């Protein structure tokens, strides 16, 4: 009787510890996935900034509103523009969306240019995704 009580307690402790260890292992894997998702989101921000500042079309003010024309179709998948002024020569009120998939990671981009009077604000939101884990970055300038 005493032996079976002791064995039951030891079994319960062993099972409890194994459950905790399995949960910790899953959490540690999730942290690694989280870092990859974060860096995927950062890659999206960097891509938009590169096209906005370094790929300016002839006679254009900025490259953001021309990103769907300049970015390769496989790099800017489902690239769409919407708004009242998405011309590369002015680019005052426009929303650009696209996504990119690479090495099992993905980022979804929404870039928005809003101009009120003479003040222009650009907001870039990038959502990185890796193995069901999502991390987002948003920047304004």
Description:
With 141 residues, the protein is α+β, with helices and mostly antiparallel strands. It has one domain (2-140). 40% of the residues lie in helices and 36% in strands. It contains two helices and five strands, in the order H-H-E-E-E-E-E. The chain has helices spanning 2-54, 67-70; strands at residues 77-85, 93-102, 105-116, 119-130, 133-140. It has a five-stranded antiparallel beta sheet with strand order 1-2-3-4-5. It is rod-shaped and about 90 Å long. The model has no long low-confidence stretch (mean pLDDT 89).
How are the strands of the biggest sheet laid out side by side?
A: 1-2-3-4-5
Number of domains: 1
* Structural category: alpha+beta
Low-confidence sequence ranges? none
Radius of gyration: 24 Å
What order do the SSEs take from the amino end to the carboxyl end, as H and E? HHEEEEE
Describe the structure in brief.
The chain is of the alpha+beta class and 141 residues long.
Layout of helices and strands:
Layout: H1 2-54, H2 67-70, E1 77-85, E2 93-102, E3 105-116, E4 119-130, E5 133-140
Antiparallel strand pairs: 1-2, 2-3, 3-4, 4-5
């Amino acid at each position: 009787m005493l032996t079976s009580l002791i064995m039951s307690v030891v079994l319960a402790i062993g099972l409890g510890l194994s459950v905790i260890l399995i949960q910790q292992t899953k959490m540690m894997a999730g942290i690694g996935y989280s870092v990859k998702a974060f860096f995927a989101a950062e890659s999206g921000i960097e891509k938009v900034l590169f096209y906005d500042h370094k790929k300016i079309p002839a006679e254009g003010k900025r490259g953001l509103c021309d990103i769907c024309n300049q970015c390769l179709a496989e790099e800017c998948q489902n690239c769409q523009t919407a708004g009242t002024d998405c011309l590369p020569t002015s680019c005052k009120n426009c929303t650009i969306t696209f996504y990119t998939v690479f090495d099992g990671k993905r980022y979804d981009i929404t870039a928005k240019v809003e101009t009120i009077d003479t003040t222009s604000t650009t907001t870039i939101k990038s959502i990185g995704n890796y193995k069901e884990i999502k991390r987002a970055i948003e920047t304004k300038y």
